[in-house]
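In line with agreed milestones, work has continued on tokenised descriptions of protein folds. One protein thus recorded appears below exactly as we store it:

>
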Amino acid sequence: MRHPAPALRLLAALGGSALASATMGWRRRPQWVLHRWARRILHRLGVEARLASPVPEGGQLWVSNHLSWLDPVVFLSLRPSGALAKAEVAAYPLIGTGARKAGLRFVVRDDPFSRAAALKTLRRDLRGGLPFLLFPEGTTTTGEALAPLREGGIRMAYRLGIPVLPFHLGGADAQYPWVGDASLLPHLRGLARARRTRVSVYPGPVLDPAAFPDEARFVAAIRSHLTRPPEGAVINPEKGS
């Protein structure tokens, strides 16, 4: 009997863990389901998120630059949270099923009506006190430069008086980023071959809208933190998530 390729076995394992998590009370506690699901996936993939410093408290909205489809999984493993993802994630084999059941929100990036609906939902969630995760670039990059930001969610946080905690992702192993039109299965094969994949997570300070005179300066401060690690930040090689 021929055994399936490692990447296919990995994909099946990911789907199994996602579906198992999604059946455990997801209607009542979708953010906690996403949190458990994310931790299981990182463990199965051998992905290690290395925090440069403790995550500050008080940032209801987390924002980060965007390197990979794994980025939301990394942050959801750190705290229960709502999250917004591109619509394509819902169609990923097996993984998408668990994500849909666990309550991940989806947006069609090139559809203005979908983006408007996503912002309306985000506004409701933020006003309701839900912790939320956002990638304002709207697409993945290699991390060498920040893509133009879709500022709607950040500006909404300013108007609602919601504190924002910016993060910078960097120092990732070569197989971590997933950029452009690369397909999922070859990417998973790379992760499977590596067995261990690291990405460095640099928390910035919590930014309170009340400390900024206008939206533009608030957005500029967040952009600055997304672009590069905090000055003097050093990753401890022994410190993981």
Summary: Residues 16-28 have pLDDT under 50 and may be disordered.
